[in-house]
Design brief:
Structural class: mainly alpha
Low-confidence stretches: 420-429
Number of strands: 11
Oligomer: single chain
Radius of gyration: 26 Å
Order of helices and strands: EEHEEEEHEHHHHHHHHHHHHHHEEEEH
Mean pLDDT: 88
Shape: elongated
Helix content: 40-55%
Amino acid sequence: MKLKPNCLEFYDIGELITFIERFHLNNCFQLANQLIDNSGTVMVKSHSLISDAILKRLISIQEDFEPTFKILINRDLQNRLNPILAKKIYKRIDVQDNTIANFLLNNSERKVDILSLIENAFTDPAISLALLYFYTTEPEFFNYMADMGLLTMSITLQNPEYFKFLTRYSFLSGLFCDLSMAGSNFYKIQNFTEAQFKELSSISAHFCDKINLPYEVVSIVETPVITIVDDAKPVHINMDNLKENVFFREVSRTAPSQRDEFSEEVIRHVLEAMKIARFIKEMNRRLGEDKDPGSKILTMFSYNIEKGFFEGQLPKKVVSRFKQYSELLDNIKRIAEIEKSCPFESAWAYPKPRSTQVLCQKKLEKCPLSIRGRDINIVNPLNPFGYIGKRMEKGYYPKCKLEAKLVKPAKNVVEQIEKEEKSETPEVV
């Protein structure tokens, strides 16, 4: 099977039948080409509806013609494909990696029919065709797309403000935000420089435009929203290879690009949700097979909200949904507040999330809060909590009097922290 911009091509009738049965397309598809037998007689005219009866007849005489079938992608076929594709995406809600999205989707103030919303988002045949292509050729990437779409939508649903198409565009933006990484494993790595991420976002937006996605979605995808530190060197990416994706190479926009009256507001709100979604997805990746990634991710998220990296009401609305972690999250917020009280933005509470001391990252020995003669030696570099910002390099760091403000967490908070596997903790002497 080959996917073209406006048709699906098959060169074996058995493969065609398997596809028809898999996607329940009986009696509903047309051929873009005509079928001619070996004598030159037209057996089936182009744009003819292929019934089961015609298909059975073709099977019985398949030796008499060249088996080239070009299934036309039209609205009728799209109406059959969309419910199937929507269900494939919807089922991803119950996957362990989507614990946070699942909880948010089921506990939002604004109730929506998730399955219908997903299905109705595929308004253009080109969108459905792109999803079909990735579902059949790159199932892992399709799952990644689905997860990002569901997560971004689940976050947007916590937004107290509402605009027309806000939820739909947030889903589509998450779903197609990393199209540039199709045909590669880069979506599994996500270790990019700012320049690389900017170019990848530009390529993704270009591909989104090709499959007739709305102006708002293209604009959102084109905007890089987050940079996360990493110890490893960034991967080498051949951008030219990504631009030559076999599917998008033959696709071009056919629908007009129009702006909605609330375009700018929708774009702003979805970008806020996308920033949160990228953070959660990346923390999920870094935690790997952790038994309880949700509590750790939310702790890192709450910390960075308090530090000012995530602004506005939406991040706080998301955190407020997880009342089961309220004491744990209150504790990490208090730690962030203590760090923020440093007038030189140098305080580093350590270790997190159960901090017992505060170090001076900038080594400001003349600071009145500096504790002289009790320097701590950091043997291994310390990443910022949540991987946002500058890491603390190895070396000696003075202690800070702000540690007196650290309040011992309540017993149940300690127990909740201790349930988690040991997090990255550098050796200190």
